[in-house]
C-alpha cells in the first residue's frame, strides 16, 4: 500500500501536497535545511514564511505515519510550530506520594491518531505502550517514560493530555482490612430475612434498629454486577454459582481474590445471606492486588473490559459497575466513567475515606457516577467518609459483615465507603430486576427518590442528606402491575 492509500477519502490535492512537504521535511532533517521551503503546484498549499496553511489534521496524520526516526519527529516539531500550535498537549508532570514514578496515561482524540502514535511516535522514540484503552469516546494508552519523552510528546501535539499514573486503593480506612472469621448468619428463604446485617435492615426500613431485611423475591434476577476490585472468592457459599472471574489486570493473577476486599463487596452487593440483590450475577474484574492497591491505568482497562463485556453479552442495560476504590483526582478516570455511563452501564463509586470533600479524588468526583458516602448504625455520617456536593447517596458503611477469603464460609466485618458502595450497586441491580432497565442517570435519581431523607447527623457540608432505601421490597413495577406501597 502506498502512502496515499493510507489516508483514503482525503482530498487528492491535500494528499499530494502533504507528501511533497513531508519529503522536504525529511530532506531538511537528514541533510541541511534549505534556504526556503519548496513552492507547491497545488493551490491548497500556501506558504507563509515557510509555514504551510494546508489542513493540519490531514498533513499531521500523514507525516506521522511516515516518520522513521526520532530525528524525523524532532525535525517535524521544529519546522511546523505554527501548525502544531493547533494541537494542544496538556502534560501534568506533578508528582505526589500516590504517583507511580515514570508511569503515564495519555489521551488522544481518535482511533486513527491512537494507531498512528502507537505505531510511529512511540516506536521511533523507543517507548512501548503498556496498555491501550478505548472506553466510548475516551481513547489512549499508558506508557513508561522520562521527561525527555514527555518533551517530545508535548512538542508534537498529537496527544490531548498526559497525566501521571497513580496508585489506587480499596476504599477502606487504614487498618480495617484485617481478617476475622465469624460464623455466618442463618439464611431465610422468604422475602423477610430475619437476623440480617444491620446494613440490609437499614436499607429496607425507614427507621434504624430493625433486625430483618425485607425485599422483593425478584432480588436482582437477570442483572449483572461487575465488581472492579481485588477479585472474588467464587467458591464461597454466598454466591451459589452466580459469581465468576471475568478479567484480571494484575500480572500473574488468575483473577481470584487474594485479599478479601472484592469478595466482601460482592457479598454485600449480591450474596445469598449478606447481599442486597440475592439473585444478581457477579463478575469479578481484578484491578487491585493482594495489598489492596493497583494503578489508575489498570482501573481504566478494567472499566473498558467490563463495558465491552456487557455490550458483547447483550446486557449493558442491566449492567452495574461497582467500584469500591479510589485515588487522586484524574480527569481521564472521570471521563472514562462518563463514557461507561453513556454506553448504558450504571456505575456506583466509593466517596473515599479521607474525611474531606470527594472532589479531590477519582472516581468519586466523576459527576456521572452514583457516588456513595458511608453512615453508621446511629444514622451519623461515618467519621472517615468523604462528603460534598458530588455525593449522590449514603448507605451503611461501618462494621459491615460479609463474605471473605480463606474458605467457602469465611466472613469478615470491616468499615469504609467501600462497604457502602456495594449496598448501592446491589440496590441498582435490585431496582433493574424489579422495575426494568432505565438510563444510569434515571436509576441514580430513582435511588435518591426512594431514599430516607434528612435523618443523617453530622453530615458533611454540601452533602445530600439521603440514606438508601429499597422501598420496603414492594415497589410498583414498571410494567405488568404488581404491588404498590410499603408492604411485603
Automatic annotation (TrEMBL):
<feature type="active site" description="Charge relay system">
    <location>
        <position position="229"/>
    </location>
</feature>
<dbReference type="Pfam" id="PF00082">
    <property type="entry name" value="Peptidase_S8"/>
</dbReference>
<dbReference type="InterPro" id="IPR023827">
    <property type="entry name" value="Peptidase_S8_Asp-AS"/>
</dbReference>
<feature type="domain" description="Peptidase S8/S53">
    <location>
        <begin position="220"/>
        <end position="446"/>
    </location>
</feature>
<feature type="active site" description="Charge relay system">
    <location>
        <position position="418"/>
    </location>
</feature>
<protein>
    <recommendedName>
        <fullName>Peptidase S8/S53 domain-containing protein</fullName>
    </recommendedName>
</protein>
<dbReference type="InterPro" id="IPR050131">
    <property type="entry name" value="Peptidase_S8_subtilisin-like"/>
</dbReference>
<dbReference type="GO" id="GO:0004252">
    <property type="term" value="F:serine-type endopeptidase activity"/>
</dbReference>
<dbReference type="GO" id="GO:0006508">
    <property type="term" value="P:proteolysis"/>
</dbReference>
<dbReference type="InterPro" id="IPR015500">
    <property type="entry name" value="Peptidase_S8_subtilisin-rel"/>
</dbReference>
<dbReference type="InterPro" id="IPR023828">
    <property type="entry name" value="Peptidase_S8_Ser-AS"/>
</dbReference>
<keyword id="KW-0645">Protease</keyword>
<dbReference type="InterPro" id="IPR036852">
    <property type="entry name" value="Peptidase_S8/S53_dom_sf"/>
</dbReference>
<keyword id="KW-0720">Serine protease</keyword>
<feature type="active site" description="Charge relay system">
    <location>
        <position position="261"/>
    </location>
</feature>
<dbReference type="GO" id="GO:0005576">
    <property type="term" value="C:extracellular region"/>
</dbReference>
<comment type="similarity">
    <text>Belongs to the peptidase S8 family.</text>
</comment>
<dbReference type="InterPro" id="IPR000209">
    <property type="entry name" value="Peptidase_S8/S53_dom"/>
</dbReference>
<keyword id="KW-0378">Hydrolase</keyword>
<dbReference type="InterPro" id="IPR034193">
    <property type="entry name" value="PCSK9_ProteinaseK-like"/>
</dbReference>
<dbReference type="InterPro" id="IPR022398">
    <property type="entry name" value="Peptidase_S8_His-AS"/>
</dbReference>
Amino acid at each position: 500500500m502506498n502512502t496515499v492509500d493510507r489516508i483514503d477519502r482525503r482530498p487528492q490535492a491535500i494528499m499530494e501536497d502533504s507528501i511533497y512537504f513531508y519529503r522536504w521535511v525529511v530532506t531538511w532533517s537528514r541533510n541541511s535545511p534549505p534556504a526556503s521551503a519548496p513552492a507547491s503546484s497545488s493551490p491548497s498549499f500556501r506558504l507563509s514564511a515557510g509555514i504551510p496553511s494546508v489542513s493540519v489534521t490531514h498533513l499531521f496524520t500523514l507525516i506521522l505515519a511516515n516518520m522513521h526516526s526520532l530525528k524525523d519527529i524532532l525535525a517535524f516539531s521544529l519546522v511546523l510550530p505554527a501548525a502544531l500550535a493547533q494541537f494542544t498537549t496538556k502534560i501534568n508532570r506533578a508528582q505526589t506520594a500516590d504517583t507511580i514514578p515514570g508511569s503515564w496515561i495519555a489521551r488522544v482524540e481518535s482511533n486513527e491518531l491512537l494507531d498512528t502514535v502507537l505505531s510511529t511516535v512511540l516506536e521511533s522514540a523507543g517507548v512501548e505502550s503498556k496498555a491501550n484503552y478505548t472506553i466510548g469516546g475516551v481513547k489512549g494508552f499508558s506508557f513508561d517514560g522520562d521527561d525527555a519523552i514527555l518533551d517530545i510528546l508535548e512538542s508534537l501535539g498529537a496527544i490531548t493530555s498526559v497525566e501521571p499514573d497513580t496508585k489506587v486503593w480499596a476504599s477502606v480506612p487504614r487498618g480495617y482490612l484485617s481478617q476475622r472469621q465469624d460464623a455466618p448468619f442463618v439464611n431465610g428463604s422468604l422475602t423477610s430475612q430475619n437476623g440480617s446485617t444491620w446494613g440490609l435492615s437499614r436499607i429496607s426500613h425507614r427507621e434504624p434498629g430493625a433486625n430483618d431485611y425485607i425485599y422483593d423475591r425478584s432480588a436482582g434476577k437477570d442483572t449483572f454486577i461487575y465488581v472492579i476490585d481485588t477479585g472474588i472468592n467464587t467458591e464461597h457459599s454466598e454466591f451459589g454459582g452466580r459469581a465468576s472471574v471475568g478479567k484480571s489486570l494484575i500480572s500473574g493473577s488468575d483473577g481470584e481474590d487474594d485479599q478479601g476486599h472484592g469478595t466482601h463487596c460482592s457479598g454485600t452487593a449480591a450474596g445469598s445471606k449478606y447481599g442486597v440483590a440475592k439473585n444478581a450475577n457477579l463478575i469479578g474484574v481484578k484491578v487491585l492486588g493482594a495489598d489492596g492497591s493497583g494503578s489508575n491505568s489498570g482501573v481504566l482497562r478494567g472499566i473498558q473490559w467490563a463495558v465491552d463485556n456487557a455490550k458483547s453479552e447483550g446486557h449493558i442495560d442491566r449492567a452495574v459497575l461497582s467500584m469500591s476504590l479510589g485515588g487522586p483526582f484524574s480527569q481521564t478516570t472521570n471521563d472514562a466513567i462518563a463514557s461507561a455511563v453513556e454506553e448504558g452501564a450504571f456505575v456506583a463509586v466509593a466517596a473515599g475515606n479521607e474525611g474531606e470533600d470527594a472532589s479531590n479524588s477519582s472516581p468519586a468526583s466523576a459527576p456521572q457516577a452514583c457516588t456513595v458516602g458511608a453512615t453508621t448504625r446511629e444514622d451519623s455520617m461515618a467519621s472517615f467518609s468523604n462528603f460534598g456536593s458530588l455525593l449522590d447517596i449514603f448507605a451503611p458503611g461501618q462494621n459491615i459483615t460479609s463474605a471473605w477469603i480463606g474458605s467457602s464460609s469465611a466472613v469478615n466485618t470491616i468499615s469504609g465507603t467501600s462497604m457502602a458502595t456495594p449496598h448501592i450497586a446491589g440496590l441498582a441491580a435490585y431496582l433493574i430486576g424489579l422495575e426494568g432497565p432505565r438510563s444510569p442517570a434515571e436509576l441514580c435519581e430513582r435511588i435518591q427518590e426512594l431514599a430516607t431523607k434528612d435523618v443523617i447527623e453530622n453530615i458533611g457540608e454540601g452533602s445530600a442528606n439521603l440514606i438508601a432505601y429499597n422501598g420496603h421490597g414492594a415497589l410498583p413495577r414498571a410494567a405488568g402491575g404488581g404491588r404498590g406501597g410499603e408492604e411485603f
